[in-house]
Design goal:
Keywords: FAD, Flavoprotein, Oxidoreductase. The longest helix has 27 residues. This protein is an alpha+beta fold. The chain has a four-stranded mixed β-sheet with strand order 1-4-5-8. It has a four-stranded antiparallel β-sheet with strand order 2-3-7-6, with no helix packed on it. The chain folds into three domains: 97 residues, Orthogonal Bundle (Butyryl-Coa Dehydrogenase, subunit A, domain 1); 108 residues, Butyryl-CoA Dehydrogenase, subunit A, domain 2, CATH 2.40.110.10; 147 residues, Up-down Bundle (Butyryl-CoA Dehydrogenase, subunit A, domain 3). Helix 5 runs antiparallel to helix 6, helix 8 packs antiparallel against helix 9 and helix 10 crosses helix 11. Helix content is 43%, strand content 12%. It is built from twelve helices and eight strands.
Length: 420
């Protein structure tokens, strides 16, 4: 058989797998070899860097790494080939994420574009929108933020008040979004806005693509309990975006937004679990080193964490395979699984690390050149950051309460919760 380069974008990975004996094993070795050959030099310093609560770490260098991945054909693996992807199978995507974690490769910076907006544009966007935006997601030259949450709505997406009105060739947007991850480093934001006056709840919403450098857009980083600022407030004061930058028809925003959330809580959880497994492995190593693994209670909690991670991975595979009763229910179950597991891991890290967790960190100049918002922030160690940042996991992206209501009402058919 002729040898081919599996990192070459000209190779349709799914088609190649269908005609290649032992394809998964061959693909796994190709991914492993490429990561070994490329996580060297300056890139080697990025091992284990970045991720939620740590996005300030070497952001510019991690962006360069993502573009290096893109040039080698390792971005957008699951997208159809005709849209710039690789046509990878579910098994191949799982293999890639697993090997990426084993190599200790850095957290990616293009998650919202590659895993959320890109698939949404492929599903709901016009050919012109796909041609305009997808290539720049593939090559990581444009980054995206998510404009969903608002101060008065939180996890209640149907309660958004940000409005948009069509004025000739533009939508004119007014309102505020909050908890907008990495907006201060992104070029674009996908925004849910109310485009029909007097509409309520799920009705009258539209899904708009908005340039963040437009007049009338103000971005203010929010300092978190970790001392870093990866979340933002975004204000729209008569901000404009082109009339054709609406995904779906006016009023279809709820349908498009829910479609995007299926992508967020489906395939993209595989990448998220890369970081989770690395954190758990590091915590087990710490417990072994400091002797806390000999405490029966801690040993039991570590075992439960390993089982919980395996359950998450199995649920992700099941969701991707379409073996689900309700897409809405599957998405909510996925969110509940990872949010509570990760919060519990933060509390377990405090028990394993012990007294050092209580030592207040000092302000440091180390890495200030890489800080993405506040060069004077206080640097935490990885376990302090894990404990503090994971307090938010059961709130952002849809709170536990909202997810349980969705499961109760849309899957189990229970009566709707009474609203004030």
């Amino acid at each position: 058989m002729t040898t081919i380069n599996l990192a070459d974008r000209g190779v349709d990975l799914g088609e190649w797998a269908a005609r290649t004996p032992n394809a998964d094993a061959v693909f796994e070795q190709a991914v492993r070899d490429w990561l070994t050959a490329n996580l060297i030099g300056d890139f080697a310093n990025l091992r284990g860097r970045g991720g939620p609560g740590s996005e300030h770490e070497f952001f510019a260098e991690r962006l360069e790494w993502d573009r290096h991945l893109a040039a080698a054909g390792w971005t957008c693996l699951g997208w159809p080939v005709e849209h710039g992807g690789r046509g990878a199978t579910i098994a191949q995507r799982i293999i890639f994420h697993r090997e990426y974690a084993r190599a200790g490769a850095p957290a990616r910076v293009n998650h919202l574009g590659e895993e959320l907006l890109g698939p949404t544009l492929i599903e709901y966007g016009t050919p012109e929108q796909q041609k305009r935006f997808l290539p720049h997601i593939v090559d990581v030259t444009e980054l995206w933020a998510q404009g969903y949450s608002e101060p008065g709505a939180g996890s209640d997406l149907a309660g958004v008040a940000t409005s948009a009105a069509l004025d000739g060739d533009h939508w004119v947007i007014n309102g505020q979004k909050i908890w907008t991850s990495l907006a201060h480093l992104s070029q674009w934001c996908f925004v849910i806005a109310r485009t029909e006056k007097q509409s309520a709840r799920h009705q009258g919403l539209s899904f708009l693509l908005v340039p963040l450098d437009a007049d009338g857009v103000t971005i203010r980083p929010i300092q978190q309990i970790t001392g870093t600022s990866e979340f933002n407030e975004v204000f729209f004061d008569d901000a404009r975006t082109d009339a054709d930058l609406i995904v779906g028809a006016p009023g279809d925003g709820w349908k498009v937004a829910m479609g995007l959330l299926q992508f967020e809580r489906g395939v993209s959880t595989l990448g998220q679990q890369v970081g989770f497994r690395r954190e758990l492995d590091d915590l087990i190593a710490l417990a072994t080193t400091n002797g806390t693994v000999d405490d029966p209670e801690i040993a039991s909690r570590l075992r439960r964490a390993k089982v919980g991670l395996s359950v998450m991975e199995a649920n992700a595979r099941r969701t991707l395979a379409g073996d689900i009763v309700s897409e809405a229910g599957a998405a909510s179950v996925t969110k509940l699984l990872w949010a509570n597991w990760h919060r519990d891991l933060g509390e377990l890290a405090a028990a394993v690390a012990g007294a050092p967790m209580l030592i207040g960190p000092a302000a440091t100049t180390e890495g200030r050149a890489n800080d993405i918002a506040d060069p004077e922030h206080v640097e935490l160690d990885e376990w302090q950051r894990l404990l503090l940042f994971t307090r938010a996991d059961t709130i952002y992206g849809g709170s536990n309460e909202v997810q349980r209501n969705i499961i109760a009402e849309r899957v189990l058919g229970l009566p709707r919760e009474a609203r004030q």
